[in-house]
Amino acid sequence: MKNTTYEAKHIQVLEGLDAVRMRPGMYIGTTGTKGLHHLLWEIVDNAVDEATNGFADAIEITLHKDGSVTVKDNGRGIPVDIHPQLKISGVEVVFTQLHAGGKFNNDNYAYSGGLHGVGASVTNALSEWLKVTVCKGGKVYEQAFHSPTDKKGKVLSGVPVAPLKEIGKSKAHGTTVSFLADARVFKNVQMDYETIARRIRELAFLNKGIKFEITDERAFGDDGDVLHAVYKFDGGLKDFVGYLNENKAPLHATAFYWKGSNDVLTLEFAFQYTNNYTENLLSYVNNIPTAEGGMHETGFKSAMTKVFNNYARQHKYLKEKDDNLLGEDFREGITAVLSVKMANVQFEGQTKTKLGNIEAKTACDAIASEGLQQLLDQHPSIAETIIKKSIASAKVREAARKAKEVTRQKNSIFNTTLIGKLASCTGKDAKKNELFIVEGDSAGGSAKSGRNRRFQAILPLRGKPLNVERKRIDQVLSNEEIRSILTALDTGWGDEFNIDDLKYDKIIILSDADQDGAHIRAILLTFFFRYMKELITEGHVYIGMPPLYKVSKKDKVKYAYDDKELKEVVAEFGRGYELQRYKGLGEMNADQLWETTMNPETRTLMRVTIEDFSEAERMVTTLMGDQIDARKQYITEHADFNKEGDTLFDELV
Ligand code: 0RA
Fold this sequence. Notes:
Layout: H1 2-22, H2 24-28, H3 33-52, E1 58-63, E2 69-73, H4 90-96, H5 120-125, E3 127-136, E4 139-146, E5 159-160, E6 165-169, E7 174-181, H6 193-206, E8 211-220, E9 226-231, H7 237-244, E10 256-261, E11 265-273, E12 280-285, E13 288-289, H8 295-314, H9 327-331, E14 334-342, E15 347-348, E16 354-355, H10 359-378, H11 380-409, H12 411-421, E17 434-439, H13 441-450, E18 456-461, H14 473-477, H15 480-489, E19 506-510, H16 515-531, H17 533-537, E20 541-544, E21 549-553, E22 556-560, H18 563-573, E23 578-581, H19 590-598, E24 605-608, H20 613-624, H21 628-637, E25 650-652
Parallel strand pairs: 1-8, 12-14, 17-18, 17-19, 19-20
Antiparallel strand pairs: 1-2, 2-7, 3-4, 3-7, 4-5, 4-6, 8-9, 10-11, 11-14, 12-13, 15-16, 20-24, 21-22, 21-23, 24-25
The protein binds 3-[3-(1H-pyrrolo[2,3-b]pyridin-5-yl)phenyl]propanoic acid.
């Protein structure tokens, strides 16, 4: 009798979670790798909330051989008492009710929620099984959930195997959740250690003092032990900035740090200047990266411009007749991390990574103004370094502006030589057009005659473009290859970059499959990353993949793009085939280049993406910067960097 009532109550719950299985994309974005890891982040977010509220200080993540994952925290434990309205335990509410976080009506939970903010019930809904153990008040409780198939073949999502049960006694406290992602939903249920480690390290930087431990029981490291890492940063954001600047030359010994709150939000920030010329500002809201920025960044930047200009005037670095410096002058060479915690966040923008809450602007401006003023007042010698560096940057900016004006006047001569290099396409539909940036004049020639001129434009590069990392804007602009790219794209760069002016949907880098080609590619990616980041974040940059081999026998011809494919083709052809190894794009004639590399029907392109901004930043400084030892070490540790498919940057399309 008791049992029937219990099950009857669940009809409603089942419908809730079944909706998740019907449309997983609505709750976790994709059912690819990203969505798979999302299941874990929902669980980890809850544990992090418990810790940032001061009730836990250790979180352990374990990847098991069968693909299941365990997240353990030492917090208060999910409530086990019966929820007055829903008449089920708190544990069951959390794992079976969508958006259960708010149901506790607990202000401590105001900050919770990941990118989609849907809660642990979504993880349960998309798992084959999930098990929770809660240690609380001297007792141990357990409940299991599963997703069985009913008589009609319909999957019941995340139903309790039985109600929450007391299973023993313990002095410990905390929550342990294990789950196995459902193979009926996800093609691959094995999570990626590197992806998890990167995100956990970021969470550890953002939430100081919490000890995170990751163990991968599926894999063995170089020492023969299972992969294992511990992340705990007592310096929080300060440590984060130090990590980002590891391979740069800082202008002052340690990063500045400030934390302040008002009735709208809590803002924490840290920053440190280096002798670089670019700005590196990372921001987060409730631990979620805000790649597109938003109101918090705007408020912080406006505070910095105002406070630094005032300081510069008061201390006579700026004379009465001098103009105020611009925000970008003060941000040259800065590495900064902002972290905001606030309720009711609204995310906007192309990728929903831009903070839209207007009130966050004034709130961040006010907190940052107070912090920055104190930092300048308390550290006059560092203040002097910053102000002098910013004045120098303003001078360069002014000189570059003048140079640009001169260039404009000479436009006819300047542009005809550059346009002479660019073979533009005849079609005007920016959504269809493609620009190939091709290494070398001879390959450029083949590409020009092989292309479909309706939608494919070709820009051959004669020499190597300038490596723009650690170069001032005036040096960057004086490089002919860079200028021809800027002219061809015509979008402007830096703060003036405007994606609406982009005339091409795809910008495809075509370079040889050798060291030089890899270098040119890295230089171009660095240039886009530094001066036209949106080109990459909006998915417009691609790498063309020319074949490595041509295999022919009589009139049969096949191309192989790697050694594995070569083996297959050779096996197919049998004896008496002819093999040509392409040393460069230039060895292909126009038809071959079209067929293998340019024809949308037959080619393979790799789209360049940025999975993780802080890691991409470190990679670019390390590989392209001027600290040779750091570069050597990086290349030794990541010996396959030049291999296609680096997870940080590329995805095949
Ligand atoms: C709501 C209230 C309380 C704890 C939690 C949620 C909680 C949830 C999770 C999820 C993973 N780990 C967690 N730890 C705690 C407080 C209950 C009380 O005061 O007894």
